[in-house]
Design goal:
The complex is a heterodimer of chains A (about 775) and B (about 300).
Chain A lengths: L11 H13 L23 H15 L31 H9 L15 H25 L4 H34 L3 H17 L7 H16 L10 H14 L5 H15 L6 H10 L6 H12 L9 H4 L5 H4 L4 E5 L11 H13 L5 E6 L5 H14 L3 E4 H10 L4 H4 L2 E3 L5 E3 L3 E9 H9 L3 H4 L27 H26 L3 H5 L3 H5 L4 H4 L10 E9 L1 H17 L5 H9 L6 H10 L8 H23 L6 E2 L2 E2 L5 H6 L29 H9 L11 E6 L7 H10 L4 E6 L2 H9 L8 E4 L2 E4 L5 H12 L4
Parallel strand pairs in A: 1-2, 2-3, 6-7, 7-8, 7-9, 10-11
Antiparallel strand pairs in A: 3-11, 4-5, 12-13
Helix pairs in contact in A: 1-9, 2-5, 3-11, 4-5, 5-6, 7-8, 7-9, 8-14, 9-14, 14-15, 15-30, 18-20, 20-27, 24-27, 31-32
Chain B lengths: L10 E11 L7 E6 L20 E4 L9 H5 L5 E4 L2 E4 L9 H5 L5 E4 L1 E4 H8 L3 H7 L2 E5 L7 H13 L3 E6 L5 H7 L5 E5 L5 H8 L4 H12 L3 E7 L8 H12 L4 E7 L26 H12 L5 E3 L2
Parallel strand pairs in B: 2-8, 8-9, 9-10, 10-11, 11-12, 12-13
Antiparallel strand pairs in B: 1-2, 1-7, 3-6, 4-5
Helix pairs in contact in B: 3-5
Classes of the chains: A alpha/beta (about 775), B alpha/beta (about 300).
């Protein structure tokens, strides 16, 4: 099969669309005034899940719709965002909400981070799902009935009908526009759009274009009703349609490229600068009580053990709400049968990202030993030109998932969630929480001060893992091992607390306040059993405790070990004193720990060994605590921070590696900014010493490369796969350019940066993130 | 051909080992910088590379003014007063006591005596990157050939381990030294600065006869060579000089490419580290037009040429 060249020019249509999106970033978006409530005397008599279905239905039938003149794939999501608690019609009564708040949940305790079964949805269509629901309902009734299940299936059917009607709304709009259109070719296109929309409201897609449109309708329906969703294995799921069209000469590869480009533009409809987005989002946020908010956020994060539990602390989020919406997709990789999945559509997708240079969708390439050389080259070329994709290593991730107990064919069918977390497409209910390793170390160093601090678990006091934690007085430590045990004790308590809380939250309480009938209907499992995914209806339930701030914990422990206990060049009590005062008045001491101790990221075995030991302990504890959980779930460990490296840092006092209080921590599994001075190969080597095969959810290494070494990305990636790295995010940028962009943003509107699965235009970022980025590239410039 | 036994405990004076270097030969490389150079190029951007002894560096930006150095210096060479911080370089004997105690390493010693094995321990860590990128190890300086025993041992050991080797040289070394490293060197990065020997001596301290002769002989032995030409405004970037370099290069058979290295405007940055003044502060880098013109001098006679960094 031919593959299309990456040098193909943008079509005039796509060029127009790109201009439209780029201009739109700097214009304030009109926020839709979401209907306030579906509650009335009639609906109050119905169950909560049915009211939730009605609320979804209300949004889909009333949200504004429009078609832009350049579009072939149509449909706009509402401009809202779950991370910032934007409005959704109220469907729960006051009593229900109060009861939920008592269980640390709320109507916004939705999580997104799902991936519907697009293979099934594309195979049977919304009509097919509707018919399956009907049959299941009939079957339950034939067998004597089950009021709860019947009620759930009826709710699912309400939402499927709403999705059908949503498509029909677009069909009608396209017809109307077609009638008024004077340009004959556009008139015909609009007629086709109307035909496709109407057909898809019942039948499954036949052509590639129909499949793209079907996928897009479902995606914006999810995103408009409180859930951010990943896109699944796009090139794998859609290739059968394209293949069929190509074989039947319905379409050329060039035409297919234009369609993919058109879809890529759609992913960026909501782009806005940080300033505009935050003004919009915060202005439209729902006012909530502290308890509701806590319940909501606790629901969102399961449990966020970095201290990220107030609205203020949500503010520094780097911007899922204005630039990604978790629209991720892995390309290529092993098929469920274990063959290489690379196909011509893989390359069309990479081309689209390379040529459009937009932040969305966040693409990944899954590589393995048998991936074609061409794919390595195209991926490297795309990174050089557009700062994406990130690279997964199937040789590591697939066995890691399989070792958690998944059948190999499902392990091979993993997809990317919101940032980079892996789970099985179409079959998984997923949640995560972040644990701050340097915070655990601080507890071991200063047991006293945490007693008064607002501990993150205060909201669920009965699950406080720190209760009864009698730590030895650090001042009395005579050897490094005493500190190491104390640190492990505290880290272990975090892990235990997080897993117990997550386990507790899986008792079905989410179903009582925030069920997900539409997403469930599109997932493998729920329609077969009549069970919502919030009640365990999905085939798999994953919970990932994610270890953040690893480099700071490792560097800190290495510094203490070497300087205080081995070489004794720093008095242990002096160090504790300096640290307690956040290094104030102790600059020489702070400089000593930064210059005289090894840092993770320099291929220095002394500190890399400590990093490895931390992760090994963490993996083992997760396994141990997971085995004690009452609910059937896989507890898959990861090392990372997602976008929370600023928030985690804000909550964390000064650390023994010289980090000042409140400073951002290192992102993901990366070294601390400014401390990895031995080149990127050394950085990768340090990272490779971690037990990466035991981190199925992922452990991304974020590397900034100078433009000079851009041409060596391919070999770098190849080495990463061969040496069994886990997940690599490389971006290529010029520090000088980044600095200039901070001064004159208008000249650098197209400068993109990437960390893990997260991408954004540099000039759209809050200043703290811009400075952090510059540091990342600068450390190799000395 | 002399084949000496590699003594892994042999020591050399090295001032830096850089990894993931992409400028010193093909692919991803590790570059080992040997300290000490017989030349004194007026534009040298690594003044700390010239002396063949360990020496004190003072990186003032890092200084936090704690005064630890003043207290410890046995020669009273460290001074801190109301007017600021200064080093009385004439008193300093590079004993390094201050560097030992300076918390931010504003004072540090350039140069460390390391064994071949210590170098190899770093070099071999990146073997997979060399293999996939066609890279390897490069020995540079200072002048790498000024430490012939150590250099030969490092090269021989690298080759034994299947690592591609490059030597970055001014060419100013006795021929027998070249003779010794030839069998263990895959590629030479060879500087040609100035074809007029008198001028060459003025600006580098040595004439160019040995350099040109060595290059011819290396070429005659069939070794791969990349010629590097640093472009120093007013010193060697005349059309005439570059044309002569091109003509000379044309007489050779194994020069694969010529890299023109535009003037590094930051070349003077490190002079204050060693208590010296840089003499060429007034120079600007070449314009793009000039670079294009220079490239043409070489490309028009069929030589492969690039602007390097």
């Amino acid at each position: 099969m031919d593959i299309v060249s990456n040098a193909l020019e943008l079509s005039p249509r796509v060029r127009n669309g790109l201009d439209f999106i780029q201009q739109g970033r700097f214009q304030e978006k009109e926020m839709w005034q979401v209907p306030l409530s579906v509650l009335d005397e009639e609906t109050r008599k119905q169950t909560l899940v049915k009211r939730k279905a009605l609320a979804i239905s209300k949004v889909l039938s009333e949200m504004p719709i429009r078609i832009e003149m350049y579009e072939l794939i149509v449909g706009f999501s509402v401009h809202n965002s779950v991370a910032n608690i934007t409005p959704f019609p109220e469907y729960a009564t006051q009593e229900e909400r109060e009861e939920a708040a008592g269980k640390y949940t709320g109507t916004f305790s939705v999580f997104g981070h799902f991936c519907p079964s697009y293979p099934k949805y594309l195979r049977v269509g919304v009509g097919g799902l509707r018919r399956q629901a009907e049959e299941k309902l009939a079957e339950i009734r034939r067998n004597g009935g089950d009021p709860e299940k019947e009620d759930w299936i009826e709710s699912a059917m309400i939402t499927l009908d709403a999705l059908r009607d949503f498509m029909l709304r677009y069909g009608r709009l396209a017809s109307e526009l077609s009638e008024g259109e004077v340009d004959p070719s556009r008139k015909e296109e609009l007629r086709e759009i109307a035909g496709i929309s109407n057909r898809l409201s019942d039948e499954p897609p036949c052509t590639f274009r129909e499949a793209l449109q079907a996928l897009w309708f479902a995606h914006i329906a999810f995103e408009s009703t409180l859930n951010f969703m990943s896109m699944g294995r796009f090139d794998q799921n859609l290739w059968p349609f394209l293949k069929h069209d190509l074989e039947n000469h319905v379409i050329t590869l060039e035409e297919a490229q234009e369609l993919v480009d058109c879809l890529w533009l759609k992913f960026n409809d909501r782009l806005q600068t940080f300033e505009l987005a935050s003004r919009n989002v915060y202005a439209s946020s729902v006012p909530m009580t502290e308890e509701e908010l806590v319940g909501t956020v606790a629901g969102i994060w399961g449990l966020y053990l970095g201290g990220n539990t107030t609205h203020d602390r949500l503010a520094p989020l780097q911007g899922s709400e204005f630039s990604t919406w978790l629209q991720t997709m892995p390309l290529s990789g092993l098929t469920p049968e274990g063959k290489d999945g690379t196909n011509p559509l893989t390359y069309l997708c990479i081309n689209a990202t390379r040529r459009l240079k937009l932040p969305q969708p966040s693409i990944y390439v899954r590589l393995h030993d048998g991936s074609p050389a061409e794919l390595y080259e195209r991926a490297a070329d795309c990174i050089q030109n557009s700062n994406g994709p990130c690279i997964y290593n199937d040789e590591v991730v697939v066995p890691a998932l399989a070792r958690q107990g998944l059948p190999i064919e499902h392990a091979r069918d993993y997809t990317t969630d919101g940032c980079w977390e892996t789970f099985i497409q179409g079959r998984t209910q997923f949640r995560y929480g972040v644990i701050s390793a340097p915070e655990a170390l601080d507890r071991a160093l200063f047991p006293g001060r945490w007693d008064e601090e607002a501990i993150p678990l205060k909201y669920i006091p009965e699950l406080d893992p720190f209760a009864g934690s009698e730590l030895p007085d650090p001042k009395e430590f005579k050897a490094y091992d005493e500190l190491w045990s104390s640190f492990k004790d505290q880290l272990g308590r975090y892990i235990k607390g997080m897993i117990e809380t997550a386990d507790d939250m899986m008792d079905g309480r989410l179903y009582d306040i925030a069920p997900l009938p539409l997403i469930s209907a599109c997932t493998e499992g729920p329609l077969e059993t009549g069970t919502d995914i919030t009640r365990g209806g999905a085939e798999y339930s994953f919970y990932s405790p994610v270890l953040g701030g690893l480099s700071h914990a490792a560097d800190s422990l290495a510094a203490i070990k070497k300087l205080c206990f081995e070489e004794k060049v720093i008095d242990w009590k002096d160090l504790l004193e300096g640290l307690k005062n956040n290094w104030e008045g102790n600059e020489p001491l702070r400089q000593m720990v930064m210059t005289r101790a090894p840092a993770y990221g320099n291929d220095s075995d002394d500190v890399d060994e400590i990093a490895r030991e931390i992760v090994e302990f963490y993996v083992a504890e997760t396994k141990k605590c997971g085995a004690n959980a009452t609910n059937k779930a896989l507890f898959n460990p990861a090392v990372g921070t997602f976008e929370h490296y600023v928030a985690v840092g804000m909550a964390c006092p000064a650390t023994p590696d010289g980090r000042l209080p409140g400073q951002p921590v290192a992102s993901n599994a990366s070294p601390t900014n400014g401390r990895a001075t031995s080149g990127q190969t050394a950085m990768i080597n340090s990272y490779l010493k971690l037990p990466l095969g035991d981190l199925p959810t992922g452990a991304p290494l974020d590397i900034g490369m100078d433009t000079r070494s851009g041409h060596l990305l391919g070999p770098m990636i190849k080495s990463f796969i061969e040496k069994r790295g886990n997940l690599l995010s490389i971006s290529v940028n010029d520090v000088g350019k980044l600095k200039a962009a901070m001064k004159e943003p208008e000249k650098y509107r197209d400068l993109k940066i990437r960390i893990g699965g997260w991408e954004a235009f540099f000039v759209d970022l809050p200043p703290a993130y811009q400075e952090w980025q510059i540091k990342k590239y600068e450390q190799h410039e000395s | 051909m002399s084949s000496m036994k590699v003594d892994p405990q042999r020591k050399g004076l090295v001032f830096s080992v850089d990894r993931n270097v992409v400028e010193d030969g093909p692919g991803i490389r590790t570059t080992v910088f040997l300290k000490g150079c017989p030349l004194r190029c007026v534009w040298c951007h690594s003044p700390q590379s010239q002396s063949k002894e360990r020496q004190l560096l003072f990186i003032e930006n890092r200084c936090i003014g704690c005064g630890a150095c003043v207290e410890i210096c046995p020669k009273d060479a460290q001074e801190m007063s109301g007017t600021g911080r200064r080093i009385l370089w004439e008193r300093c004997d590079d004993c390094g006591e201050c560097a030992n105690v300076c918390p931010p390493m504003a004072l540090e010693m350039a140069g460390e005596w390391v064994t071949v094995e210590q170098i190899m321990d770093i070099v071999r860590r990146d073997v997979v990157y060399y293999k996939n990128s066609g890279g390897g190890v490069t020995f540079s300086g200072g002048e790498a050939l000024a430490q012939p025993e150590f250099l030969t041992a490092c090269l021989e050991r690298s080759r034994q381990e299947g690592i591609h080797t490059a030597v970055d040289t001014s060419g100013f070394a006795p021929w027998p030294v070249f003779e010794r490293i030839l069998p263990h060197t895959d590629l030479f990065l060879y500087d040609l600065k100035q074809m007029d020997s008198g001028k060459h001596e003025e600006m580098t301290g040595v004439g160019n006869a040995v350099i040109l002769e060595n290059l011819k002989r290396i070429d005659g032995r069939g070794k791969r060579v990349w010629v590097r030409v640093p472009l120093i405004p007013g010193y060697n970037d005349s059309i005439e000089n570059l044309r002569q370099i091109a003509e000379f290069t044309q007489t050779l058979t194994n020069v694969e490419r010529i890299s023109l290295l535009p003037y590094n405007g930051a070349a003077g940055a490190k002079y204050s580290f060693v208590g010296r003044k840089y003499g060429l502060e007034h120079l600007d880098g070449q314009t793009n037009q000039e670079k294009t013109d220079f490239l043409k001098i070489f490309s028009s006679v069929g030589l492969t040429v690039e602007v390097g960094r």
